TrEMBL record:
<keyword id="KW-0479">Metal-binding</keyword>
<keyword id="KW-0408">Iron</keyword>
<feature type="transmembrane region" description="Helical">
    <location>
        <begin position="61"/>
        <end position="82"/>
    </location>
</feature>
<protein>
    <recommendedName>
        <fullName>Cytochrome bc1 complex Rieske iron-sulfur subunit</fullName>
    </recommendedName>
</protein>
<dbReference type="InterPro" id="IPR014349">
    <property type="entry name" value="Rieske_Fe-S_prot"/>
</dbReference>
<keyword id="KW-1133">Transmembrane helix</keyword>
<dbReference type="InterPro" id="IPR036922">
    <property type="entry name" value="Rieske_2Fe-2S_sf"/>
</dbReference>
<keyword id="KW-0679">Respiratory chain</keyword>
<keyword id="KW-0249">Electron transport</keyword>
<feature type="transmembrane region" description="Helical">
    <location>
        <begin position="102"/>
        <end position="122"/>
    </location>
</feature>
<keyword id="KW-0472">Membrane</keyword>
<keyword id="KW-0560">Oxidoreductase</keyword>
<feature type="region of interest" description="Disordered">
    <location>
        <begin position="1"/>
        <end position="43"/>
    </location>
</feature>
<keyword id="KW-1003">Cell membrane</keyword>
<keyword id="KW-0813">Transport</keyword>
<dbReference type="InterPro" id="IPR017941">
    <property type="entry name" value="Rieske_2Fe-2S"/>
</dbReference>
<dbReference type="InterPro" id="IPR045603">
    <property type="entry name" value="QcrA_N"/>
</dbReference>
Length: 355
């Protein structure tokens, strides 16, 4: 008759400690499935046992929060101190905008210091003992809610937020100042254009200057059926704002037979059949330059909007929504063509339905 052995009888003497440790781990796991039997005992940090070390950590956190506040102030000051068009050389980036560089550095330091201060605070001063809490239903019973409130109060107490006023005050200051960066960014939405889009470099008495020869135009310089491009007197290509101004003031001059002009206002604003219209298409701002001499039509090369220069430059075809603005011109006492004022309506693409 064979004998039966128990589960532990096969364990040799040399394997006894390992078996006992395994059995102990199984017993702990059975009583607490979340426990780690191999977890070493909790070791206190130096800040937990030495108040001087805790004070050093507190000063470090406060320094980071204070540095964040100074960086936020620097961010705001950069908007005032640096012009938008100022360029600086920074190795290895090369030529960069001084304003963008200052804004990026100051905002980056402000956000980094808040994060670094919070992390250092949590790692050195807040409680680092790990706790396991079983999951509970969403609708917590009253005793669980009481426990949560109790745990919150305990956490607030352990964070020493009330006792360590230096950290608390500097943290509140850093967090309160950072949103001001977003408020200052609203400056890029302004200033409001007001009526700037309704005005160009043309004004009463401004001579019409040929773009190619840079000479003032006389009526005899423009032949019937010809197309000439002009700019306002005093607007030179080496001017700082030349591109911005010519984008609104570029002029297209055509000489028609006065009898061919159908629109009364166009005839009144012309001189001996010489009419001046904006060169900027009212669709998306492309330069209108393709002129059909026989039909007096001018074509935009971008999207084929077609305008009738003999009928107030009204739209004949294409996506443009408005006629080309006309410039009122005449001849001065010296025999040169000059403007009688600015365009009567905004040039280029319609904005706010020209309201």
């Amino acid at each position: 008759m064979s004998s039966q052995t128990g589960p532990d009888e096969n364990v040799s003497d040399e394997n006894l400690p390992a078996a006992q440790e395994e059995a102990h781990g199984a017993q702990v796991a059975k009583s607490d499935p979340f426990a780690d039997p191999g977890l070493p005992p909790h070791e206190h940090r130096i800040q937990d046992i030495d108040e001087r070390a805790a004070k050093r950590s507190e000063r470090t956190v406060a320094f980071l929060f204070t540095l964040s506040m100074l960086a936020t102030v620097g961010f705001i000051a950069s908007f005032v101190a640096f012009p938008i068009d100022k360029i600086v050389y920074v190795w290895p980036l090369g030529r960069v905008s001084a304003l963008n560089l200052a804004l990026g550095l100051t905002l980056g330091v402000a956000l980094f210091c808040i994060g670094a201060g919070a992390v250092h605070w949590a790692r050195t001063l807040m409680s680092d003992e790990e706790m396991v809490d079983e999951r509970h239903p969403i609708a917590a019973p009253p005793e669980v809610r009481e426990k949560v409130i109790s745990d919150f109060k305990q956490g607030a107490k352990e964070s020493a937020l009330g006792r360590r006023k230096l950290i608390r005050n500097t943290m509140f200051g850093a967090v309160a100042l950072v949103p001001l960066s977003g408020v200052v960014l609203l400056r890029d939405l302004g200033p409001l254009p007001k009526d700037k889009l309704r005005h160009t470099a043309w004004a009463k008495g401004k001579l019409l200057v040929n773009e190619n020869t840079n000479e003032p135009l006389r009526p005899e310089d423009i032949a019937v059926g010809s197309l000439t491009f002009a700019k306002p007197e005093g607007l030179e290509e080496d001017d700082h704002d030349f591109q911005k101004e010519i984008a609104k003031a570029a002029l297209m001059i055509v000489r028609l037979e006065p009898n061919d002009i159908k629109d009364k206002r166009e005839l009144d604003w012309s001189h001996e059949g010489i009419v001046a219209f904006s060169k900027i298409c009212t669709h998306v701002g492309c330069p209108v330059s393709l002129y059909e001499q026989q039909t007096h039509h001018v074509l935009c090369p971008c999207h084929q909007s077609t305008f009738d220069l003999a009928d107030g430059a009204r739209v004949l075809f294409g996506p443009a929504g408005h006629p080309l603005p006309q410039l009122n011109i005449s001849v001065n006492k010296d025999g040169y063509l000059e403007a009688q004022g600015d365009f009567a309506e905004p040039v280029g693409p319609a904005f706010w339905e020209r309201g």
